[in-house]
């Protein structure tokens, strides 16, 4: 009794320590987090710009100088390439460790380990599309590639050198909040980062939804409403450019082109492609520029996040001196420039994800029928570890095409039924090539030939690599592995039993669409069709809507004596090509309705100058209405509940402008009345305006300003950490305009490079900051300048001893004796 | 005396030790500087809370970016009632509760075990 009386405070104190040491559900470990000596307040930076220093690191061969400039951009000067990539890994990890590790957990389907079972379905999907398995195979294969292996290993060693230095109090704040610790880095994880990008850029498909259309309406309607080339387009390779190659034999179209699913098979939906994920790039030749040498611009559009997807840096060794943005977790510069050349990328977006209906022999799913024979499936067991340590197991089957993303298990009642699922062939699961080498060689390229050689290493997903050199060349190539297909192969769900439905090899790489020094004096891309219908190979039936491409090409066509600022202004161009194309016709119909014609909304729309500027009320009305208009035209015949694909914007606009009597304007859900195009236009307008009034009040210049309605926001990667994000970013733009800033997507890096025979001048900026730490002033410091459409002048140093008032501090990395 | 000792020892050792370092500091201090249980509890609790709140405010004021509000925002996201409370106040309250409870009971444990090993004369 006396013992208990004296010992209970001790036990209670220990119990308290235990309680505050661990997380409980979503509540983080309060003790660790709120202790100012180790908790989150350790991440609140006092003054990041002071403190030259020296760090001894095991694994370095020589000294490395890292200068940080006034935007916290590191300029790394190493004496050899191994040290360069080591230092790159070290320096990026210092700013972005949590982020890069988080991405690899996403790609590997391992989020449950740090956030718990809530992420299981997401993890399961990411595992079932095969990303981790492919990344492991690529990493394994690259071990035999001397160059790739060397840079990946050096980079990983640099990241690990940083991780080893970390004590609890130094951990990025997300680790403290989510209560876990970083794992060692490896070249496999760098590949996972690239897999994550493959998924972002190419991880969607409309195949099932258009197959549903085919099943419901037949081939004639599909041909009429879902044509293989838009009515209005401005392709990447200018129309009329001759193809300087003899094409290889193109596979013949088989009798059967699709194998539609039985009802209800798609219990687990493949995401639709994200139209907001796109990009712009272009280069003008010396004939169009004020300097007489090319100027290049690029702005990749991705989901806007904090920390930012990009990280600016300069990498310099005796073999290379390059500046640009890197993907945290991956060596080399992905988009950038050196003394002689500049390059940028946009997503090509061709059809590289197809689905094959598989016929299994029996419910064990052990064998499937293909090309007249039963072939064995490969079976994997995936295990998912939860945050509490428990495990969930999942079985995954592969055919030769790829993973069966979804298989529906039949009840074992001895019935002779054949379980059916679809196998996915996806270019992201190709394991050849070495994408990282493309960037390694681009970083070192000095001319067009170097650029073309660098491109040969790239696999997926195909990117439109724009290029310019101070030798005066400009070029663009849709580069990457493009499957050789029969016309419309993979437009619909395919039949996995037919050999003719397999991908038939690849388009010879040198025959990918591309153009060098075209007579018009510029090259450009905005995810549109790479080539017109004269291109001999089938790439896809649908690419990004042509509006951005049309505007870019119009402006570049008209440009003379272009400067870097002309290109910056084009990146921020808010002109709405769609409004110019369709609004005059829509206004004619609206004017027929008196109640609309006399409304303030109509008045604002009519007076609108087609620019999606931040203060434009007309842009708000047009953009908000477009969705209702599409639903008005297509919602009855293509109801969302039946998972049918809508015809494209291009097709809809053509119908409105040129086929006003089309039967599609009559609503099939009102059998007693015949609606015409005017009815649909007016009623959808009223619906949209009612919704706007409900959300933003009566029309006013402030409440209905486009920036206020669009509400651009840049949120943290963890959805629950809303206070780590930035909302109410006031700017113009829109998914269909060159300044492609929508609510959550937008230009994730804007760069303009003016080449010079002596030394290039470059500008750039991204919507975030160099630091991944929400407690740093460099976490989001570029956002306001980004929203205003400004660019920073980039400090591209010639050598480590260069003097500049913008260099704030220097860190010396030195080899540590073992 | 006890208060100052915990503050000093706690400050120095927390700088190097794990987050719960304040517990052994309070325990040992109260073990060797015997007090009556109730004052031992409160002195330890107040000293621990002072240490955590003081250093928190110091770091908060010295920072160029208001990380305190960002982190507090995660906790108050679903609680509009707390939206107007200054973030550093919320953080200080939580820090005081955690440090105070752990410090207080550790101090109490120190006194109690000291009584156990050195039974009162008489």
UniProtKB/TrEMBL annotation, chain A:
CDD domains: Ntn_PGA_like. Keywords: Hydrolase, Zymogen. It holds the Pfam family Penicil_amidase. InterPro entries: Ntn_hydrolases_N (IPR029055), Pen/GL7ACA/AHL_acylase (IPR014395), Penicillin_amidase_A-knob (IPR043147), Penicillin_amidase_dom1 (IPR023343), Penicillin_amidase_N_B-knob (IPR043146), S45 (IPR002692). Belongs to the peptidase S45 family. This is Beta-lactam antibiotic acylase. It comes from Parapedobacter defluvii.
UniProtKB/TrEMBL annotation, chain B:
The chain crosses the membrane at residues 6-33, 40-61, 87-111. It comes from the Bacteria. Keywords: Membrane, Transmembrane, Transmembrane helix. This is Uncharacterized protein. It comes from Parapedobacter defluvii.
């Amino acid at each position: 009794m006396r013992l208990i009386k004296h010992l209970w405070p001790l036990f209670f104190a220990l119990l308290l320590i235990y309680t505050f040491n661990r997380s409980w559900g979503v509540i983080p470990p309060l003790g660790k987090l709120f202790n100012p000596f180790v908790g989150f307040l350790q991440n609140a930076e006092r003054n990041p710009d002071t403190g030259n220093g020296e760090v001894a690191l095991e694994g370095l061969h020589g000294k490395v100088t890292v200068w940080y400039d006034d935007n916290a951009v590191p300029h790394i000067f190493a004496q050899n390439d191994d040290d360069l990539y080591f230092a790159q890994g070290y320096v990026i990890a210092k700013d972005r460790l949590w982020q890069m590790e988080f991405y690899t957990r996403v790609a590997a389907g391992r989020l449950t380990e740090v956030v718990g079972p809530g992420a299981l379905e997401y993890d399961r999907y990411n595992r079932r599309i095969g990303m981790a398995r492919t990344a492991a195979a690529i990493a394994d294969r690259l071990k035999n590639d001397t160059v790739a292996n060397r840079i990946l290993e050096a980079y990983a060693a640099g990241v690990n050198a940083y991780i080893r230095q970390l004590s609890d109090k130094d951990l990025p704040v997300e680790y403290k909040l989510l209560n876990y610790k970083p794992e060692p880095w490896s070249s496999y994880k760098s590949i996972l980062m690239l897999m994550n990008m493959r998924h972002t850029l190419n991880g969607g498909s409309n195949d099932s939804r258009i197959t549903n259309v085919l099943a419901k309406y037949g081939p004639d309607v599909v041909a009429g409403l879902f044509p293989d080339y838009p009515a209005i387009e401005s392709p990447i390779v200018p129309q009329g450019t001759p193809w300087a190659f003899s094409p290889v034999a193109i596979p013949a179209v088989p009798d059967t082109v699709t194998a539609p699913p039985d009802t209800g098979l798609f219990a687990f939906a493949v995401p639709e492609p994200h139209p907001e994920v796109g990009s712009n790039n272009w280069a003008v030749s010396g004939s169009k520029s004020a300097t007489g040498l090319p100027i290049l611009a690029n702005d990749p559009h991705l989901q806007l996040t904090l920390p930012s997807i990009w990280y600016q840096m300069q990498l310099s060794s005796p073999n290379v001196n390059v500046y640009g943005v890197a993907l945290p977790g991956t060596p080399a510069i992905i988009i950038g420039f050196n003394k002689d050349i500049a390059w940028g990328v946009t997503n090509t977006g061709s059809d590289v994800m197809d689905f094959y209906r598989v016929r299994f022999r029996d419910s064990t799913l052990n064998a499937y029928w293909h090309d007249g024979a039963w072939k064995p499936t490969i079976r994997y067991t995936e295990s998912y570890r939860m945050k509490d340590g428990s495990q969930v197991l999942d079985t995954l089957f592969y055919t030769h095409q790829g993973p069966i993303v979804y298989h529906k298990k039949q009840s074992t009642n001895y019935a002779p039924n054949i379980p059916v699922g679809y196998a996915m062939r996806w270019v992201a699961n190709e394991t050849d090539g070495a994408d990282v080498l493309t960037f390694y060689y681009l970083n070192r390229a000095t001319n067009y030939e170097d650029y073309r050689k660098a491109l040969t290493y790239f696999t997926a997903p195909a990117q439109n690599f724009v290029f310019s050199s101070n030798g005066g060349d400009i070029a663009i190539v849709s580069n990457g592995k493009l499957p050789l297909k029969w016309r419309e192969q993979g437009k619909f769900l395919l039949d996995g039993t037919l050999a003719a439905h397999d991908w038939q090899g690849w388009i010879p790489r040198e025959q990918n669409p591309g153009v060098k020094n075209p007579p018009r004096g510029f090259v450009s891309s905005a995810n549109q069709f790479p080539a017109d219908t004269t291109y001999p190979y089938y790439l896809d039936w649908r690419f990004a809507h042509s509006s951005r491409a049309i505007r870019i090409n119009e402006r570049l066509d008209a440009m003379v004596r272009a400067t870097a600022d002309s290109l910056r202004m084009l990146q921020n161009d808010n002109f709405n090509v769609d409004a110019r194309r369709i609004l005059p016709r829509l206004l004619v119909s609206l004017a027929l309705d008196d109640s609309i014609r006399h409304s303030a909304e109509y008045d604002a729309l009519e007076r609108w100058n087609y620019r999606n500027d931040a203060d434009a009320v007309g842009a708000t009305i047009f953009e908000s209405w477009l969705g209702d208009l599409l639903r008005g035209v297509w919602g009855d015949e293509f109801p969302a509940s039946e998972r049918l694909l809508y015809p494209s914007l291009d097709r809809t606009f053509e119908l409105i402008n040129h086929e006003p009597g089309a039967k599609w304007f009559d609503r099939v859900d009102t059998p007693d009345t015949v609606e015409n195009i005017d009815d649909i236009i007016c009623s959808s307008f009223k619906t949209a305006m009612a919704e706007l009034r409900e959300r933003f009040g009566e029309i006013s210049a402030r409440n209905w300003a486009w920036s206020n309605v669009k509400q651009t926001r840049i949120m943290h990667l963890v959805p629950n950490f809303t206070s780590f994000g930035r909302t109410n970013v006031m700017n113009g733009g829109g998914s269909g305009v060159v300044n492609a800033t929508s609510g959550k997507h937008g230009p994730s890096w804007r760069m303009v490079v003016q080449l010079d025979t002596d030394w290039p001048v470059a500008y750039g900026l991204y919507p975030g900051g160099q630091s991944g730490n929400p407690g740093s002033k460099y976490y989001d410091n570029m956002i306001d300048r980004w929203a205003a459409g400004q660019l920073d002048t980039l400090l591209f140093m010639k050598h480590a001893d260069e003097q500049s008032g913008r260099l704030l501090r220097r860190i010396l990395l030195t080899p540590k004796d073992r | 005396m006890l208060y100052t000792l915990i503050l000093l020892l706690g400050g120095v050792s927390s700088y190097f030790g794990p987050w719960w370092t304040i517990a052994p500091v309070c325990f040992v201090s109260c073990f060797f500087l015997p007090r009556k249980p109730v004052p031992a509890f409160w002195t330890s609790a107040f000293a621990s809370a002072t240490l955590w709140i003081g250093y928190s405010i110091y770091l908060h004021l010295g920072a160029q970016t208001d990380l305190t509000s960002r982190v507090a925002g995660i906790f108050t996201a679903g609680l509009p009632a707390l939206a107007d409370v200054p973030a550093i106040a919320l953080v200080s309250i939580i820090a005081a509760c955690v440090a105070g409870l752990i410090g207080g009971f550790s101090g109490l444990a120190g006194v109690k075990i000291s009584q156990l090993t050195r039974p009162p004369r008489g």
